[in-house]
Each structure stands twice: as C-alpha cells, then as structure tokens.
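Tokens in:
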C-alpha cells in the first residue's frame, strides 16, 4: 500500500482532559484474567442542535399494542447529557465517541458562535474522541484546527461571536481523528489517526476517518487529500492487532440505511449504502460506528461479523454499545441498542421508556449561547398561509432526498428572485440536502426558522446550461452514487436518488418504471416532452442556453454528484448569500398577505405516494 502518510499508532495520545489512554502494551501476565465489560456511547451528525426541536420525533414500537407505532419528541443537549450520565453509571468502563459532523450546517445558536458553543457543550457532556465529518471542513482546515486547539476566531467580536466564556476559547476537550485526511502542506494527517484507551487491563484501539468523497461534499477541503477508507483502516487495524490490542473500533463518517419503520429494528431490512463495501473490505475490526447518512441502525454484518451502528442525527439517538473483552485474546461478545433521547415535551410515552430530565449544568450552558443570539433570531421575517414541512422517510426522522419538498420549492423561488433582472435567469435549483428543516405551523416565520432551514452561508451563482445539459443534469438525480444515497423502497419500487428542488419556472414529469440506479450518463427517466421552462411554461429547446441559479456547492463544485454544473458556461457569483436571499423573499409576505403554499413542479405518476 502506498498511502501518503501513516501516523504512528503505538503511542498514546495525550490531550487536554484525556488521561485514560494506555502508554504501553501490557503482558498477559499483568492482565486481569476475567473478561471485562466495556460500554461505548456513540453519537454522530449532531450539527450543533443544542436546543430541543418541536420537529424532532422518533417512532417506537408500543409494547401495549405491537401493531401500532408510538411517536415521541426527542433531542436537546441537556437531555443527551442526562442519558450519557445514566449510561456511564451503569458501567464505569465507558467512553463517549463520535462519527463526525458535530458542527457545520448548524442552527443559529451554534453557528453564531462559530460553533464554539457545540464544541464546548460536547466536551462538557463527555465526548472523548471523534472522527471528522465532511461538515467539520465547511470553514476550511485552519478554522477546524482552531476548534480543536483553541483561540478566538479572527474578525469576530470577542465575548459575543467568539471566545464567549471568559473571553477565551480553549478548543475541544475531545480529540478529532483523521486517519485518511492528509494536509498537503505537511504531508501528514491533519489530526491523529488513532486513539487507544485501556479498561482494567484490556485495550481498545480506535481508528477515526471520514469519507473519501469529502471534497465533493464541502467547499472547505482545499489543501487536503483523502485516502481510501479500507486501506487506511486495515493498515491501522493490523498494527493494533500486532500490538496485542484486544478490540478495534472504527469511527467513520460514512453510512448507509435500512427500510425499518421503527427505532432499533435489528433485523436491518434493506440495509444498503456506501458503508457496506467498506465494511466488507475490513479485517481485524470488531465494531464500525458510522455517520453521514442521518439514519439509525444496529446491524451485524453477515460477511464479516462486524457490528455496524449509526445513531440517527441532531442528537435524537445515542447508541449504547457493549463489549465483553477477554484480556490478551479479544472480543467475546458485542451488542448494541439505539436509545432515544426522549425529552420532557412529551405528554405520553410508551411503557418501558422514560422521559429524561435536563442536566442542569448543560442546560445553563445552552441558555448562555441561546441568549446571545436570541434577539436576532426572534425577528419576524414574514408569514406563511400553510405549513411548509420537510418530508421525512416513513417511520423515521430522516430527510427524504427522493421527493420534492414544499420548503425546497420555496428556497428555489427565493434563489431565482435574488438574481438581478439584467441576468435574465430562467430557473433555480438546489440540492435536497440544502433543505435542513421545514416549518410545521402556519403564521409568523422568524430569522431562526430561516437559518435552521438554510444554515450554510453559501453564495448564490448563475450558470448557463443548454437544454441537453439540463436534461443530463436532471438524470443525474437518479444515477450512480446519487442512487446509493439513502436508498428507499416503497411498495417494491426502488425510489433511490437525490431530487433537485426546482423553482416554479421548471416543471416536468418522470417515470420510475424506467429504472433508476443506472451508471452515470445512462439514465433516461425524464419525460423530455413534458419539460417546461419559464413563467409562461414554454417547451424545452434542447439547443437553447438557459440561465440556472444555484448555490456555490453545486455551481462551483458539482456537489452531490451533479457534475453537469461544472460543464456550464458563464459562471457568475451574484454576491448574494442563501440566507439573505430567503430573508428578502419572505419579507414580501406580511401578516395581511401570507405566502401561499407553492404548487408542485415535479410529477411522477408511477411513483408510490409519500404524502
């Protein structure tokens, strides 16, 4: 193997607040011979959601009526803290770990502090080690290293926007790992590759890394190279085993999904996704803690015996992983459960579950950051006549990337409206991942609502595509890697893909029976004769150029595998940020004339119904 860099893994990491990792291998004679029980408490994709949310719900099996599903409200950092304390009390041999994306695409309470709020709170909760996720790179490697190492953010107001507590920021109390992320300036890993911790004479080696495709998922990966996940993991796992380390756990920001309708369905129906070929290629690994796809699962891989987990997103779920390890030999047993972070917003909870009480110290910490941004967040920006929900995958809280969202339509309309008149833009499109939440109630819409929906701070661009290129772009929605992202089957129909959210000036129909999932360049699901462009709904001209407004993630980077954007001409930064475009758009709708719900733009007569 020829990796650009492999960091030493036989050395214990020594970082602030971490004192439990081993310093040298112990001989078997020195070990306690009795098997040791170890608990790993895992989270992923928190994205700065410090506050509980009315929109965050999970579906649980009702033990009093197994044929029915009970819905509970979940999430909130103070409640996570309480659950973590409860789990640690069950077994002192515990460690809290993460699989990345604790920051980035964060709501205002975290983003307004440059995500220092989340870094501080997760450290206080007890997070000890985490992989980096793609969103950790959103502001670039220098800013990410600042979050790890400390220091105030340049150009920000100390005490209000950065260094909130006592005008200082000491950096993360936990250690980021980046085994496959190479800093091109140093030819070394950006962060350590591994972490070792000892529990009563047995040692667990952690390898932390992110998906190799991170540069396609964020604009902040400049100056970094990303190595193959399987090669990197196997290299470190082999060295761990050579050192006599009894258990190997991978923390990786890559994932998959199942078609399970309720939490903790360990039959893992329809398990699929980018994580599976990685798991199938691993050796000497016991557990893989995954992330990125915002799904929940606990699965035993049939090919390798590896325990594979993911804990939903936004702090709605914590994975409770329990290992029985024999000193000098290895893992005798491994089990896990997905535990809902049930908060006190629930009026009724199924038997067998308990609402958590908020941890007082973390509640005070969150309140500090909440108060800093409250005044700006509370400003009303407009009014809506009907809810604009985010469509979730049935039975889960995971965003459904395969459908048109009402909120996605509104964002696309806001994009288009932000284009200068002289640009003569025709349509607007955004990726479904750009719709981070919805609005579930009619009435007033605050800045906080809008920032939660579009927290990225992406600049808006326009680019010219021919009619032929536009059709090819739309076909990319259901091709290749986009069809392996959060795959979903409904009534036996493969509904994979990422559906670009269109402005009202683009309508079309497509046919799922033509078969999504083809290689890039070979899809033919769009019914070309149905495509209409512009306010007058004119038929598409394959040879004509059309001006498309979109965000920098798509326009500059061809993100989410929408490569056709990079084939366009006349790329122009409009000098408008996405959140500002939305604020301006919603400002048009006062209480006396609220925004009506948008009409659907995409039709699929052959698709199962999701609404």
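Residues out:
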């Amino acid at each position: 193997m020829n990796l650009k860099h492999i960091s030493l893994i036989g050395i214990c990491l020594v970082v602030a607040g971490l004192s439990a990792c081993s310093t040298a291998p112990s001989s078997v004679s020195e070990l306690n011979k009795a098997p040791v029980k170890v608990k790993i408490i895992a989270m992923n994709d928190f994205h700065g959601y410090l506050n509980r949310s009315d929109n965050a719900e999970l579906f649980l099996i009702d033990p009093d009526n197994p044929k029915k599903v009970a819905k509970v409200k979940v999430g909130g950092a103070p409640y996570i803290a309480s659950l973590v304390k409860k789990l640690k009390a069950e077994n002192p041999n515990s460690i809290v770990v993460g699989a990345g994306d604790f920051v980035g695409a964060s709501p205002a309470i975290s983003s307004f502090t440059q995500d220092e709020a989340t870094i501080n709170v997760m450290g206080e909760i007890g997070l000890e080690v985490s992989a980096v996720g793609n969103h950790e790179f959103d502001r670039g490697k220098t800013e990410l290293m600042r979050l790890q190492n400390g220091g105030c953010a340049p150009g920000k107001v100390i005490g209000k926007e950065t260094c909130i507590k006592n005008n200082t920021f000491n950096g993360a109390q936990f250690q980021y790992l980046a085994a496959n992320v190479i800093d091109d300036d140093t030819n070394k890993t950006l962060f350590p590759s591994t972490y070792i911790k000892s529990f009563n004479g047995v040692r667990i080696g952690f390898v932390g890394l992110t998906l190799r495709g991170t540069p396609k998922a964020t604009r902040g990966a400049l100056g970094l190279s990303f190595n193959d996940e399987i090669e990197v993991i196997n290299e470190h796992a082999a060295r761990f085993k050579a050192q006599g380390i009894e258990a190997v756990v991978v923390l990786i920001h890559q994932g998959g999904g199942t078609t399970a309708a309720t939490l903790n369905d360990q039959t893992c129906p329809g398990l699929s996704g980018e994580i599976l070929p990685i798991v199938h290629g691993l050796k000497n690994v016991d557990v893989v803690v995954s992330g990125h796809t915002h799904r929940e699962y606990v699965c035993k891989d049939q090919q390798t015996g590896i325990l594979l987990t993911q804990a939903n997103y936004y702090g709605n779920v914590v994975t409770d992983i329990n290992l029985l390890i024999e000193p000098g030999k290895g893992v005798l047993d491994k089990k896990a459960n997905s535990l809902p972070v049930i908060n006190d917003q629930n009026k009724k909870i199924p038997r067998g579950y308990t609402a958590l009480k908020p941890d007082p110290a973390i509640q005070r910490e969150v309140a500090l950051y909440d108060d800093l941004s409250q005044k700006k967040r509370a400003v009303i920006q407009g009014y809506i006549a009907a809810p604009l929900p985010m469509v979730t995958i049935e039975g889960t809280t995971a965003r459904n990337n395969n459908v048109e969202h009402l909120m996605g339509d509104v964002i696309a309309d806001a994009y288009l409206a932000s284009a200068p008149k002289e640009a003569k833009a025709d349509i607007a499109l955004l990726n479904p991942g750009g719709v981070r939440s919805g609005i579930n109630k009619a009435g007033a819409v605050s800045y906080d609502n809008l920032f939660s929906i579009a927290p990225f701070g992406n600049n808006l661009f326009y680019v010219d595509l021919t009619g032929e290129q536009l059709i090819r772009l739309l076909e990319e929605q259901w091709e290749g890697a986009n069809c392996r992202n959060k795959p979903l089957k409904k009534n036996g129909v493969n509904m994979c893909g990422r559906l670009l959210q269109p402005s009202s000036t683009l309508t079309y129909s497509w046919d799922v029976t033509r078969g999504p999932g083809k290689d890039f360049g070979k899809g033919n699901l769009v019914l070309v004769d149905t495509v209409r462009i512009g306010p007058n709904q004119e038929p598409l001209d394959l040879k004509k150029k059309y001006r498309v407004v979109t965000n920098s993630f798509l326009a500059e980077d061809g993100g989410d595998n929408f490569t056709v954007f990079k084939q366009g001409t006349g790329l122009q930064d409009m000098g408008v940020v996405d959140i500002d475009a939305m604020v301006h758009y919603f400002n048009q709708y006062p209480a006396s004339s609220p925004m009506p719900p948008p009409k659907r733009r995409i039709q699929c007569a052959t698709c199962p119904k999701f609404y």
